[in-house]
Amino acid sequence: MSEFAGAIDFILHERESQTGGTQVGGQQLLPLLWDHLQLTGVSVAVAVAIAVPLALWLGHVGRGELLATSVANVGRAVPSLALIAFFVAYLGVGFTNVTLALVLLAIPPILTNTYVGVRQADRDAVDAARGMGMTGAQIVRRVELPLALPLVMGGIRTSVVNVIATATIAPLAGVATLGDPIIAAGVYGTEGRLGAAILVALLAVAAEALFALLQREVTPRGLSSTRTAKTSRRLKPA
Amino acid sequence: MIALLAQVEIRDRAAEDGCVAGNGFCPGWIADNLDRYLEPFWQHVYLSIVAVVVGFAIAFALALLAHERRWLVGPIIGITGVLYTLPSIAVFFLLQPITGRGALTALIALTAYTLLILFRNIVTGLENVPSETKDAARGIGYTDRQVLWKVELPLAMPEIIAGLRIAATTTVGLATLAFFAGAGGLGGEIFADITFKSNVVFAGGLCLALAILLDVMLLAAQRLLLPWRRAVAT
């Protein structure tokens, strides 16, 4: 277990790198953590901006069911490493390219969950809204979106955890995240690698817990929470 | 500090082949280098299938246990859910001080990831069996065991196979990172030269093909096992 003790020490205190010259661990991990969070935040935000409006529209007009459901299946089958490698080989390294790859990874769960959420919105409620004279846009914004929100959040939660996991291999594409000590173990040493693995695992669990809480917060009163648990299909993060 | 891309490049840059030198997508290079992918491919197949089979055995036992003791469902989903949240790349390293490097470490992690999906689908499948059907079976004298094996499980099969399909494709994807645990697989080949298009596309394509193949095989198994239900899997 001394390895774990060494890994904790690496997280808490700076030390000289294996190659000499620079300090690694401790404070040096903060910018890596920041870049990890930034990469995750930007990727998921872009994915939300694309997937939520698209799925709301598809769900509202009741079209594209095959697209909305099969996108999740295809997304699950594409290995995250292959996706990152594909972007590196064809577009090159850098923050923008990694973000693009992570956006592609983050879209499927959000798209599918939002679509399912809208389709499952109580038809009586939608009909009532129409009877009250609401326009299509009003129905989407004031009835279907609020009713779908728990599932939308569930999709975002899945994507955030997925992206946090995959951002770990971003150093392969030239973006230094918490995965840097894992990819460049020659510099950080094996204790550094283990320390980074601990941090990434904690980060994923913390994000999962945070978004589970948010998901509960946005569930309208009267909607049972069991429904969201059952219908939100989670994709395994990388 | 950024990890250097100083990996061993598997292509010979000085090759006369202009396609390889220019880093294009080169079917010729792939045809000449098929051997390179054979062993990693079979490692990938081995990891995926063993993880799903062992995971199914565990999830099935847990589901039967929870089927009789309902209060177990929540805690089991909670625990397997936390396992499921842990990023595989982290787990592959976290296990190494305990189980060392190699296929065992990768298999422990990959198996753990199948549990949530399989357990949830088996339990849901069993729950969805109409109680009238079970009552009818009891009415004609079936014991509890017979009700389970002859009525409930066959009727739960579509959900169970749907779970196996999700678990199989997910596991093939995750096994791409198993080389970090020292277990080989196609991910190691992708990692070996991540900037070489032919390599990345072919190794990644093999992963995708394996996922699709397992999915189609499970779908075929469903049609064979459930001739009375030709409907598509949910």
Description:
The complex is a heterodimer of chains A (238) and B (234). Chain A has 238 residues and is mostly helical. Chain A has one domain (2-11, 28-231): MetI-like fold, CATH 1.10.3720. In chain A, 76% of the residues lie in helices and 2% in strands. The longest helix of chain A is centred in the last third of the chain and has 34 residues, at 185-218. By secondary structure, chain B is mostly helical. Chain B has a single domain, classed as Orthogonal Bundle (MetI-like fold), CATH 1.10.3720. In chain B, 73% of the residues lie in helices and 0% in strands. Chains A and B meet through helix 3, helix 4, helix 7, helix 8 and helix 9 of A and helix 4, helix 5, helix 7, helix 9 and helix 10 of B.
Short key terms for the protein model shown above:
heterodimer, A: 238 residues, mainly alpha, MetI-like fold, two-stranded antiparallel sheet, 10 helices, 2 strands, B: 234 residues, disordered N terminus
Strand tally of chain A, please? 2
- CATH fold field value of chain A: MetI-like fold
Whole-number tally of structural domains of chain A: 1
Overall morphology of chain A: elongated
The H-level CATH homologous superfamily of chain A, spelled out, is MetI-like
By DSSP, the count of extended strands of chain B is: 0
Poorly predicted segments of chain B = 1-7
Query: Judging by the overall fold, what is the CATH architecture of chain A?
Result: Orthogonal Bundle
Helix content of chain B: over 70%
Radius of gyration of CA atoms of chain B, rounded to a whole number: 22 Å
The mean pLDDT of chain A is 87
Q: Biggest interface pair, residues each?
A: A-B, 53 and 50 residues
For the termini of chain A, the CA-CA separation is: 26 Å
The main β sheet of chain A shows up as: 2 strands, antiparallel
In the CATH hierarchy, the architecture of chain B is Orthogonal Bundle
What is the N-to-C succession of helices and strands of chain A? HEEHHHHHHHHH
The CATH class of chain A, by name, is: Mainly Alpha
